[in-house]
Amino acid sequence: MTLTTWALAAALLAPLQAKKDPKAEFPTRWAAVAKRVAQRHVALARKCTEKKVHEMAWEEFQRAAALDPSNVDAQLALGRKLDKEKGGWVDTSATKPKKNEGTPAELKVRMKECADERLAMAAKAIGDLETLADWASANQLTEEAKGIWTRILRDYDPTYERALRATGWQLVDGRWVSPEDLARRSAGKQKLADTGDGEVAKDPSALERALGSTLSKRKSAHCFLEGNRSDEEMQELTRICEATRAMYLESFHLDDKALRRTIHGIFFVEHPQYVEFLERGSKLPANEIEDYKRSVNGYVAFGRMEFVNCQDKTTWETVKDDASHMTTHLLLAQQTGLGDNPPWLQEGLAYWFTERMLQTALTKCIRSETSTGDTRGKLDPLDWRKQIADDLAAGTAPPLREVMFSQMTTLSIPKVVKAWSVVDFFLTRQLDPFVAFLGNLKAKMKQEEAMTQAFGGKSLVEIDALWQAYAKER
Ligand SMILES: [Zn+2]
Fold first, then answer.
1. How far apart are CA 229 and CA 316, in angstroms?
2. Distance 146 CA to ligand 1 centre (A)
3. What is the CA radius of gyration of the chain?
């Protein structure tokens, strides 16, 4: 045979003998990788045991056994025995985790050593898994590949870039955003794009008569906005208020007949215009007007379904955020019939909607009792998922009860972030109990009873645990 015919024969033969079905081959390949990674966990567990960091060792043995049930070392270390009848390893009375041994100072050092070992092990495990994920992708096993990438993020490194990309995360303004959040945000943007911006209101308003000047005015199905901003700006604000309402109804599965009171928004650009309004156009009691001039640039009046915004030294982004934030407050007030809804609920909901709609959380109704102004830290919803994850890992997330019973003045940043996350959990996973809770508030039930009853008798601690499980998986 000539060289050419050899090559031809080889090319013809190769597909015939080698091409196994990748789908059928995957389980074998996975078993081999799982076996190797399980051995890595066992090796790490042994090092932890030597250092008497038994709790970490226990976790590592468990992971090894979960990955590769035939790993005898891991099973024996977990105090299990082989049950021939059941055909597997079963727990015995010896299956109990041991407490770490040593003084707190010693343990601190040894736990750090173990944590470093774990990081080194994780890097190697990622290498093993990644090779298989690449093979799966190269063989069009999309779901299998995704499963491995998800496992890398969950068990070894939640910030591993290739895994984030492969599972649909995107880098937005320097932060990774999950596929679910990307979908919700684009739904928010779509809602905004789909919403009308009302029409110019021609007749003079009560406020114009009181001020003796003309304002830009727009009227839409559920909103009436006026102020000394351009008509173009008023159009955008109208769209934001209407879209917030539409999204609110959608999120609570309410039909369009619900929450129909007209929302009245009033907008000023400069502080002196706002002061003039306070003196001549607002319906505030005289003794409150001085306070409002000094301390705040706007307010919300639940009885009149009205909010007032003055941009002053803030940005246009902040004005837009405020329009959505205050609309949310007024809708909640309509829903529960209460002017003084619990602060965590008001703020948590408002931030949830501004994040969806505008990806901002710039309005601060909260004033800390221990500090003023900017020392409260920046509220950037893009950082919140990470902050929650960090708080959970460090065990510093404030308990639900503390969040629920905070006043506006004591609702600190970690509590606000938790309030937002609890609202996220309730709206996306616990809508029926959430709606029942609001109904109970409307019926004048106290918060704890209202929530416990809505959640079928679960205590606040139990509801908090449900939230934790939800927050951890994200
Ligand atoms: Zn607020």
1. 11
2. 40
3. 29
Report how far residue 335's alpha carbon sits from residue 301's, in angstroms, rounded to the nearest whole number.
Answer: 15
pLDDT in tens, 167-219: 999 998 888 888 988 898 899 899 999 999 999 999 999 999 999 999 999 99
What lies within 8 Å, CB to CB, of 191 at 6+ separation is 243, 246, 247, 357
**How close is the Cα of 221 to the center of ligand 1, in Å?**
24
Q: Which runs of consecutive H residues, i.e. helices, occur in 71-141?
A: 72-77, 104-138
Q: pTM for the complete prediction?
A: 0.78
Alpha helices in 359-430 (DSSP H): 384-394, 400-404, 413-429
Ion ligand 1 nearby residues (CB, 5 A)? 350, 365
Distance 347 CA to ligand 1 centre (A): 5
* Domains of the chain: residue spans and CATH: 18-167 (no CATH), 174-341 (3.40.30.160), 354-474 (no CATH)
The model's pLDDT over 96-149, given as tens digits with 9 standing for 90+, comes to 888 999 999 999 999 999 999 999 999 999 999 999 999 999 999 999 999 999
Question: CA–CA separation, 313 vs 270, rounded Å?
Answer: 8
Sign of CA dihedral 356, 362, 363, 364: positive
Give the residue-averaged pLDDT of 403-414.
88
DSSP per residue over 231-292, as a string? HHHHHHHHHHHHHHHHHHHHHTT--TTSS-SPEEEEEESSHHHHHHHHHHT----HHHHHHH
Separation of CA 322 and ligand 1 centre (Å): 8
Q: Distance between CA 335 and CA 252 in Å, rounded?
A: 10
